[in-house]
Amino acid sequence: LRSTMALQELSQLEDRLSSVERRVDDIAATIASAGLESIGALKTELALLEAEAHRLESSGVDNVYTGELASGKGAAKETKKSQLQRLEGLFAQIDALFAEMQRSSEPSGAATLPVPLVAAGAATEQTADMAATLPARSPPSAAPAWAPPPAPARSGLQ
């Protein structure tokens, strides 16, 4: 009974994984011809697919225990191993697609050196890449643009 349940669960995960893989492949085929206006939507969809793949891995494949199975143990272990390998390949493909979309959405000639930010709560390296494409700011003037009003004069009462 446990073996049958584990194999059924892995079969359902197989269907979901195949669906995510197909959609990521569709996005990969679309990127080359996508205009700048559609890159943002593709990035959003790709991020959602990546999150779904992580759920499949952590809450799906990793939660199917094969150690205590009897009759279907070998088949379940092989299926699980295959799905985990496919997920790793999918994550690598997704990372490559994000990098490709980043390159295709950059203005030509923009310098984008990665600037790692280490302060607590700091922006990500990707945000630093985006900031590197902004024009340089002029240095601040010596006088502040705004100063607090002077404190009211105190009367002689204490």
How would you summarize the topology of this molecule?
Blueprint: H1 2-31, H2 36-60, H3 73-105, H4 125-132
3D structure, described in words:
With 158 residues, the chain is an all-alpha fold. Helix content is 61%, strand content 0%. It has helices at residues 2-31, 36-60, 73-105, 125-132. The N and C termini lie far apart (87 Å). Residues 109-141 have low confidence and may be disordered.
Tell me the strand percentage band. under 5%
State the helix count.
4
* Percent helix: 55-70%
What oligomeric state is this? single chain
Structural category is: mainly alpha
Secondary structure tally: strands: 0
- What's the story with the biggest beta sheet? none
Give a short summary of the structure.
With 158 residues, this protein is mostly helical. It contains four helices and no strands.
Characteristic terms for this protein:
158 residues, mainly alpha, 4 helices, flat
